[in-house]
Amino acid sequence: MSLGPDPRAVHPVPAHQRIVFLRNVVSAPNVEIGEYTYYDDPEAALLFGSRNILHHYDFLGDRLVIGRFCAIATGARFVMNGANHAMTGFSTFPFNIFGEGWDEGFDFASITAGLKGDTTVGNDVWIGADALILPGVTIGDGAIVAASSVVSRDVAPYSVVAGNPAATRRLRFEPAVIERLLAVRWWDWPAETIGRNLAAIRGADIDALEKAV
Q1: Quick check: is 85 catalytic?
Q2: Is the pTM of this model over 0.85?
Q3: Is the dihedral of CA 165, 52, 23, 15 positive or negative?
Q4: Which residues contact residue 208 at a Cβ distance below 8 angstroms, ignoring those fewer than 6 apart?
Q5: Catalytic residue (one of 11, 55, 56, 85)
């Protein structure tokens, strides 16, 4: 049984250089990406770290964590906490970043007051083209984010969200099935086990999937 593509590959489909395994492309210490998660972009797939993860500054301490087996379409972007401006006073203009005396008296706490924490994407998540993920949200396992959606709040596992702001349109499966899927966690299986049980993973029979291990 084939073990599938090499998770260490940059271009797991050599004929299509637009597809990259992000774990092998993004090296920032404040970003964690699971194996087999890929990004598809015909022009700048290798530049995901600089073009698609925005305003991510080490000194703020927030992290972007993306699970395994996620599919991220062209133009999807993650806006991190560094995009936020101070909102504790009358003006939101970032006088301090221009220096020349405008940085005097700046209280860094006015920035940290607006931090929303880490941004987390679960496993087996599909993020559509040009979706925008805002700081501090959690997207649950198995969720689907529709193209051009703006995700400003948490997304439940195995839900489909769309719009601006993104709202839940439906659940992919019945709640009882979702609970069982979250217990199975097929994405954590060894590659050999996954390869041997692709029919059950691709299928929609939860009993068969539970027995596949």
Answers
A1: yes
A2: yes
A3: positive
A4: 199, 200
A5: 85
